[in-house]
Amino acid sequence: MVIKNIRIVDDTQDFIGDVRVESCKIAEIGHGLHDEEEYDYAGTSCALLPAFTDLHVHFRDPGLTHKEDVVTGSHAAVRGGYTAVNLMPNTKPVCSSLEQAQDVQRRVAATGLIFANQTLSMTKNLEGKDFSHLLPLKKNEILFVTDDGRGVDDDVVMEQIFLICKERHIGIMSHTEKSEYSKVDMRKAENAMTFRDIDLCRKTGGRIHFCHVSTKEAIEAIARAKAEGLEVTCEVTPHHIAATGEEVNHYRVNPPFREKEDVEALIAAMQSGVVDAISTDHAPHTAEDKQNGSPGMTGLELAFSLCYTKLVVPGYLTLSQLVKLMSTTPSAMMKLNKGRVQVGMDADLTIVDTDMKYIVDPKEFASKGKNTPFAGWQLQGRVLHTYRAGKLVF
Ligand code: DOR
Ligand code: ZN
Description:
Blueprint: E1 2-10, E2 13-22, E3 25-30, E4 38-40, E5 46-50, E6 52-57, H1 70-79, E7 82-87, H2 98-109, E8 115-118, E9 144-146, H3 155-168, E10 171-174, H4 179-182, H5 186-204, E11 207-210, H6 216-228, E12 231-236, H7 238-242, H8 260-272, E13 277-278, H9 287-291, H10 303-312, H11 319-333, E14 349-359, E15 378-388, E16 391-392
Parallel strand pairs: 1-4, 1-5, 6-7, 7-8, 9-10, 10-11, 11-12, 12-13
Antiparallel strand pairs: 1-2, 2-3, 5-14, 14-15, 15-16
Helix pairs in contact: 3-5, 5-6, 6-8
Bound molecules: (4S)-2,6-dioxohexahydropyrimidine-4-carboxylic acid (DOR) and zinc ion (ZN).
């Protein structure tokens, strides 16, 4: 097929042209291309982007499938323009084995919608102590380990994990929250563990990825660590740049919604290249669980619209810069052959309408999680179609 006369945007280009897709791959980019199937976008406000990749997603499968399962989660992903997700291990049971990870990955693949990588926990049952399940892992056998949802409080345990992962080329995704501060000062909880992990990164010569960075102090420390040459990467969520705590009535999420100065610091870090990826921390919960205080919100289906409205419309980022954060860099971090509109890459593509405005209605979500503080918000920029390996999946 050929997608014609459409604005083609990735981190390296932004122009109007045609893309031809053949055998699952991007075969040709140019002007005046032809094939059996042709879709002409001349005169529209649509743009063709490399489909997004989300480094931080909770599908709750197995064990918590009343909140989400691999099928509803995959549908939510493609509706949001995503064709690849990195799944967190805080399921029931916690994912600590290759067998469980492979089972989840197989069941996601069977939906035919997206690619999923399932991460393993850093410690058994996310208890922050026993990491013996990491020892038998071979070099490059898995991409990431994480205890997301919790921080590893014990410095000695964390140092050991750094060393084990360094030897095996495994990425650490750190949810920085020092539990002794969680009840009293959530800013200190994030900052203290971020500083600790940077120190361990320096000491061990290891590598670390910081999840959902939300404070000015943490992002500034990460900027300094990068300038120093440490192997540090980080992600920011759409929700932490879309609103302050006050604006969403302190809707419960970990880390919490922050202050205006934090939002400004995160956006500045996106502009300067300190932020590597935008990740949703898609955290579906039932209405009842939310009422009982479960933190988090559904993220996949609103991410592009929130980011376009809050970052591109006001002129903080170009669409190219947004694509780099939502697709190019996270795809490279997951070692995928996608993330650019480039000949030879997988034809994982997303078509968005950058002018379309709409009101957020959680009833429309494919996700089982209808939990969002953004219901009723007017957003601009909407995902219209998603292709996975050349096949229309949304
Ligand atoms: O708000 C959150 N919810 N933050 C996390 O780190 C975990 C997530 C969840 O699993 O619900
Ligand atoms: Zn987390």
